[in-house]
Amino acid sequence: MDSSIFPKSFAWGAATAAYQVEGGWDADGKGLNVWDTFTHQGGDRVFKNQTGDVACGSYTLWEEDLKCIKQLGLTHYRFSLSWSRLLPDGTTGFINQKGIDYYNKMIDTLLENNVIPIVTLYHFDMPQALEDQGGWQSEKTAGVFEEYAEFCFKTFGDRVKMWITINEPYVVAKYGYEDGLFAPGKKEQGIGAYQAAHNMIKAHAKAWHNYNMFFRNQQKGLVSIALDSDWAEPFDPNSTTDKEATERYLSFHLHWFAKPIFIDGDYPEIMKSEIFKKSKHQGLQLSRLPEFTNEEKVKIKGTADFFCLNYYTTRKIRPRKTTHDEPSYSSDMAAEGIKDPNWPISSIEWLAVVPWGIRKLLKYIKDTFANPIIYITENGFAQSNPASLEDTQRWTYFQETLLEILKAIKLDRVSVKGYLVWSLLDNFEWISGYSARFGLFHVDFHRIDLPRTPYISAIEYSKVVKRNGLTKPMECFGSPHNS
Length: 483
Ligand code: NOJ
Hints:
Largest sheet: 8 strands, parallel, barrel
Bound molecules: 1-deoxynojirimycin
Number of helices: 17
Strand order of the largest sheet: 1-2-3-4-5-7-10-12
Structural class: alpha/beta
CATH class of the domain at 11-230 and 348-357 and 377-467: Alpha Beta
Low-confidence stretches: 479-483
Radius of gyration: 21 Å
Helix content: 40-55%
Shape: globular
């Protein structure tokens, strides 16, 4: 048996998100979203005050993206729908036909080319009109999201069979409503993120049930949510406090969403007890962490048909010393993640390159969440700008990561069914603007026609896709004992 070959029908893909690639921010009736507002406000919150107004121009250059997808030979392409392009004020009160036409064209041409679309409903770009009414901090948004999801299932579900409701709810909650670093820029420490997460979990569950009840029989698709997680391990493997801090770190990030959705409809016990304890210490009667009713717990549990993992990096964890006087997510978690100085750093400071972390995380997910089917819906490495097309080192990281995934599949028996690179194209990397290049294809943002050119990684990745396996003979591993 050739150990460098992936299982039959393995999904090979790449991913993008609407705001990061489309541009056309006010084209053809699109409504404003929170990233339009956030970037237009300036104030140096984004690198050089850059915006996604034009980005890769994918709204008008879709055929160019399709060429890239075909050149790679991908079996799957993951992209997101711009909520406010379809529903300018976020509700079905007004539907923008031009938006429907654009996504129909994408979906149809993908299918004509035998590429399966994986469609994310919401990738950080909340319609501004809804944000003005509280955004994810308002419970009402969960209901409006269900309406939007239903509209998408109805409109595109005859052809789209893999849905992702929300991308990285952790990032939205923590950076959008706790630190204020991402749109909508709210800094309500110790409260905002918990409220936002609470309503996103409810929104996701509502969308899943809507699909389950009204569409699944006919459309026969699957619905999930994309969760990001670092791999985390104790700074000192022999230290009890480091081990406890690691448990908190994973509870306050991965389990915050995965436990309610995959296990029992409720938050991790550690989160509940720590936040309650600290809330009391801060003179509050009730915990700052909202509670799900029993009825809600029943509705939330089991609302993902597969596990979507976005993996980028790893941390070593030890306790963070805080006074707990001021409410904040970090003091609630009381753990800090450290990068080992031996790990190479990609061009983005948080992204230490740790390929072996993915294998450990995959095994952990298998053991903790009842052996789900897993798609790695994002993984990637940033280059700085300007980036060399000869990104041989980046390709080495990709190969090392793929090797670790193979080990997870073959040695640890994890059910990994697909791998999607972040990203198809260099694009607008949120607060890093265009300074970080994650693409398999280089985009020349100085030219009006925004030409796409393959990096070495794209050429090499296409060979892996074609072979359904690693191309460089890697004396990977022979027997299950040899890792
Ligand atoms: C995860 C996000 O989903 C994506 O939008 C972002 O660009 C990548 N991480 C890289 O930071």
